[in-house]
Design brief:
The complex is a heterodimer of chains A (316) and B (278). Chain A is an all-alpha fold and 316 residues long. Chain A is built from 14 helices and no strands. Chain B has 278 residues and is mainly α. Chain B has a domain of 135 residues: MetI-like fold, CATH 1.10.3720. In chain B, helix 5 runs antiparallel to helix 13 and helix 9 runs antiparallel to helix 10. Classes of the chains: A mainly alpha (316), B mainly alpha (278). Chains A and B meet through helix 1, helix 2, helix 4, helix 5 and helix 6 of A and helix 1, helix 2, helix 5, helix 6 and helix 7 of B.
Chain lengths: 316, 278
């Protein structure tokens, strides 16, 4: 499986270097030897219309004061100036980054730890894998409602805390300005850990036992074996798991709507919830588009950095 | 070296304990969904109900308007199946052409799709909504199927292109010699060969459509057609701290996908682990 990962990563960076494509160059006239080029047309048109044209228009709206109805004026960077001078928008930006990086770090550490625990010799590893992966398939909205109850003032968490004499710790977790954002982080981590685990299990399965044995015979400790042997071998899995986690973490929306509704007093708002609020609840389409453009730029920047970092490692 | 020792047994037991702790939220979900209104306030949130109360479930199946759960279930199922059909058809055709072409434009198109996967939907949502409203796609099931197909097409094409590339051209060469047309080759030879890829595409994209909340909330806003997550959102919005009723709907919304997952868990997990790597 590691080979597929590597070839995939390679393909993303340098397409066309894979060996499987050799020999498919058409010798006969015509664009393709198999299939017809126009088969790709509906797909290409749909993607350009729904992704690119819509995004370009959205980007253009970001420089207007359009309210969704009637005429609008071009106002240059006014929307962006307002975003970066508004402390509530800066808070939303900070929350977005906090949730994205917090969830990536925690899900990957926990996912890798569970994958390592399940990796060698367990008889029931497949049953355990099914259980840990289960939250991944559920709707984030439904999962968030369960956790909202757990964090409720009269919910299970506070009941347990009171039972062990920690009454002072018990609080309305999702309504607490400090802790509300942490409850969202916990829900994301709980739901996504199984996903990281599955990617790491696939990566670990491809690491030959012999290498680990050789390192063990050479006197490497458990930690040294992990840090110098196992971890370098699953680097492609790390790249995939962290990239996907980051991109998804930056657009968290459902969990916030269900758990806190961006409250208390906007303490858990993110860029994604602010876009929704401005564009669809308040009708400030131009301002909402500007927020969305900020989110888009952040996601693209991190995706490129991530790609660069993992490709740089590959070539070492 | 990796024999099953006492230490391995201990590890196995510890991970089972961890797994059970990990799954405690499901216990709260089931225990609370079957509590009657009285029990909800008289018993501890940790306790099981004395006798399962089914009243919460009968109530939610009779809700009307934009929190109509039964209609939401049907709508979600139609949209998911419709989007999967569209994605498999367009995704496989486009992915095939990209994978089999050696010309430069196919690389450009491939990158076009790759960037579209990462591009967040928020920025395009407003213009898309205006465009979709103008041509009557909002508020209808057909419109949603077209939208979901377009939104998830880059992912489907990316997955298919990866699978087609790893599939050699020998079968196609042989079929060409036997006189099969290009259309016959694709639909009768290549597509059946790539059935596991179709399974992966269907599971990954189907799950996204089934669980989607944001797109449905916006594009179906104000219409009587709601999906399951949106109906759930509105239904729960009208209940304040009536956790037994909230959990009845949450439980009902989870059952179809959980049943499917447990039935086809291997495909699900392999789809996620293998599919995203290509």
């Amino acid at each position: 499986m590691t080979t597929t990962v590597e070839s995939e990563t390679e393909r993303v960076i340098v397409p066309g270097r894979g060996g499987s494509r050799r020999g498919t160059r058409p010798r006969r006239p015509g664009l393709l030897k198999f299939g017809h080029w126009w088969w790709a047309l509906p797909g290409v048109v749909l993607v350009i219309a729904i992704h690119y044209i819509a995004t370009v228009f959205g980007g253009a709206f970001a420089f207007t004061n359009w309210s969704g109805l009637g005429s609008f004026d071009w106002i240059g960077f006014e929307n962006f100036r307002r975003i970066f001078q508004d402390s509530s928008k800066l808070l939303a930006l900070g929350n977005t980054l906090f949730l994205a990086f917090g969830s990536v770090i925690l899900t990957n550490v926990l996912g890798l730890a569970i994958a390592l625990g399940l990796n060698r010799g367990l008889k029931t590893r497949y049953a355990l894998r099914v259980l840990f992966f289960m939250p991944v398939v559920l709707s984030p909205l439904a999962v968030s409602y369960i956790w909202k109850f757990i964090f409720d003032y009269n919910g299970p968490l506070n009941t347990v805390l009171r039972a062990i004499g920690l009454d002072s710790v018990a609080r309305a977790w999702t309504g607490d300005p400090t802790w509300a954002i942490w409850t969202i982080l916990i829900v994301i981590v709980w739901q996504q850990t199984g996903f990281s685990m599955v990617i790491y299990m696939a990566g670990l399965a491809a690491v030959p036992v012999e290498i680990e044995e050789a390192a063990a015979i050479d006197g490497a400790s458990l930690w040294q074996r992990f840090w110098h042997v196992t971890l370098p071998a699953i680097r492609p899995a790390v790249a995939i798991s962290t990239t996907l986690g980051l991109v998804n973490g930056l657009r968290v929306f459902d969990q916030i709507m269900a758990l806190t509704g961006t409250g208390p007093a906007g303490a858990t708002a993110t860029l994604a919830t602010e876009v929704y609020k401005q564009a669809f609840t308040l009708g400030n389409f131009g301002y909402g588009a500007a927020l969305a453009l900020v989110l888009t730029v952040i996601i693209l920047v991190f995706a490129v950095i991530q790609q660069r970092v993992s490709s740089g490692r590959e070539e070492d | 070296m990796f024999r099953y020792t006492k230490l391995t047994a201990l590890r196995e037991v510890l991970i089972w304990v961890l797994a059970l702790v990990f799954l405690i939220p499901f216990y709260f979900l089931v225990a609370t969904a079957f509590k009657s209104n009285d029990e909800l306030f008289t018993t501890s949130p940790l306790a099981l109900p004395d006798a399962p109360a089914w009243g919460n479930f009968t109530e939610l199946f009779t809700a009307q308007g934009n929190s109509n759960i039964v209609q939401g279930l049907i709508n979600s199922a139609i949209m998911t199946v419709g989007a999967i059909i569209g994605l498999v058809l367009l995704g496989s055709l486009t992915g095939y052409v990209i994978a089999r072409s050696t010309r430069r434009w196919s690389k450009v198109v491939y990158y076009l799709f790759l960037v579209a996967i990462v591009l967040p939907s928020q920025l395009g949502t407003v213009p898309l909504y205006i465009g979709a409203r103008a041509i009557g796609l909002t508020g209808t099931l057909w419109g949603m199927i077209v939208l979901y197909t377009g939104m998830l097409l880059p992912l489907a094409i990316f997955l298919y292109a990866g699978f087609f590339r790893s599939l050699g051209t020998e079968y196609e060469e042989a079929a060409t010699i036997d006189g099969a047309s290009r259309t016959q080759i694709f639909f009768r030879i290549v597509l059946p060969l790539i059935a596991p890829a179709t399974g992966t595409v269907a599971i990954l994209t189907g799950l996204i459509v089934w669980n989607d909340f944001f797109t449905a909330l916006i594009f179906l806003g104000g219409s009587a057609n709601q999906t399951l997550p949106v109906a759930m959102y509105y239904f729960i919005g009208s209940l304040v701290s009536q956790w037994n009723k909230i959990f009845a709907i949450v439980l009902v919304s989870m059952i179809p996908i959980l049943a499917f997952y447990l039935f086809a868990q291997k495909r699900f997990i392999q789809g996620f682990a293998g599919g995203l790597k290509g």
